[in-house]
Amino acid sequence: MALDTAAKYRDRFPIFGSVAYLNSCSQGALSHEVRSAFNHYLDGMDERGSLWEEWVGRQEDVRVLIAKIFSTTPDQVAITTSASAGVSSLMSAIDFTKGKNKIVTTGLEFPTIGQISHAQELRGAEIVHIPAEADNQLDIAKVAAAIDDKTILVAVTHVCYRNGSMTDIKAIVDLAHSRGVPVLVDAYQSAGAIPINFEELGADFLVGGVLKYMLSCPGVGFMLVNKKNVMKAIPTMTGWFAARDIFAMDIMKYDPAIDARRFESGTPPIPSLYAAKAGLGLLLEVGLDNAWAHTKVLHNQMREGIISLGGKCATPAGAGFHAAMLAVKVTDEHAMVAAVAQDKVVISSRDSNIRISPHFYNNSEDIERLLASIAKNKHLLA
Ligand SMILES: Cc1ncc(COP(=O)(O)O)c(C=O)c1O
Fold first, then answer.
1. 221 CB under 6 A from ligand 1?
2. Are strands 221-225 and 77-80 parallel, antiparallel or unpaired?
3. Same fold for the domain at 4-30+288-380 and the one at 35-283?
């Protein structure tokens, strides 16, 4: 029974003692495990001072856990301080002056891809955005039509942070590759919520972070890099933790690592790595398949409830078109978020939508509480 997942894990997250927390698209709920990991870091500082060996080991533990989550190998995982840091490092490795300068991206992007792509205009790039259709889905044929012999990268988000629409990444990868163009995926809103197999997806680069459905905290992002691209990309935005031998401390040359680590930078975010190890460990214990099987049921319960209240969903329906988040159209998103907060239900908003984002720790009662609160504030539904 899918809903047993919440019963099994919910008491590890103290917030459920007082609140129906349905905002994992912003920040995952804090578990006992993650809190103790932060304490463990601080206790070590009190007891033993600087713990470089343990710290560097912690970074490698997190690399292994992220590799497991995406069914890939640790040498294809760069640990960064944000998704933006990975994207910037990748962009710094691209030369836009040799005939190919076009980045094909979409209207569904978070600023991480949108703004960093446009920053490359200063270095010769041309950016083309394919807008989403009226139903918030991307028309893959329009993406295909935009990829030409000047295209150097396709950069696309998996699940849109504003409306929850999910794009068929495999279809985009296949068509971009058929024209020899690599694909960068922003998976921040799908990572940890649904199972993703990096090898099967076939993307060249995939960025995300551990803050949301990956149950951890700010400060740790990652970029998965398909092996075949590593040696072709030489980042100029770099740091000593990206060196082939970190402890060579050679200031006379630049010798980047021969695996995904070459996209890293300086001193890692150590306290966040302690938390990430605990959060990712818990996520793997739950299992991505179990988490998604569970959340899918709640997503459908929410969708049916909203429709029966006369509301409209911004998130497309049906398998393959959404992940955990359900975005609902409202007339005043801030008023609706504040109104349900009065009933101790936590959600968030973007544009003219409220975003409701369950995870494996939520149960049907959370959804009923949310729907009852929205029913009281029905006048705010668009
Ligand atoms: C889809 C998506 N990409 C990127 C980010 C932010 O990434 P970072 O701040 O790690 O660069 C977010 C955060 O909300 C997001 O939802």
1. yes
2. antiparallel
3. no
Q: What is the pLDDT of residue 53?
A: 84
The predicted pLDDT at position 3 comes to 60
Output the pLDDT for position 145: 97
> For the segment 190-209, what is each residue's pLDDT rounded down to a tens digit?
999 999 999 999 999 999 99
| pLDDT of 1 strictly over 60 | no
- Torsion-angle region of 182 (φ positive above 0: left; ψ -120 to 50: alpha; else: beta): beta
| CA 225 – ligand 1 centroid, Å | 18
Candidates 3.40.190.10, 3.30.70.100, 3.40.50.10330, 3.90.1150.10; correct CATH number of 4-30+288-380?
3.90.1150.10
Residue 382, Cβ density class (10 Å: 0-12 exposed, 13-18 middle, ≥19 buried): middle
Cα separation, 257 vs 233, in Å, equals: 11
Share above pLDDT 90 across residues of the chain, in percent, rounded to a whole number: 96
Model confidence over 206-263: pLDDT tens digits? 999 999 999 999 999 999 999 999 888 999 999 999 999 998 999 999 999 999 999 9
Third-level CATH fold of 35-283? Aspartate Aminotransferase; domain 2 (3.40.640)
Segments making up each domain of the chain, as ranges: 4-30+288-380, 35-283
Q: Is 161 in the pocket of ligand 1 (CB under 6 A)?
A: yes
Question: Strands 20-21 and 345-346: what pairing?
Answer: parallel
Cα of 331 to ligand 1 centre, how many Å? 25
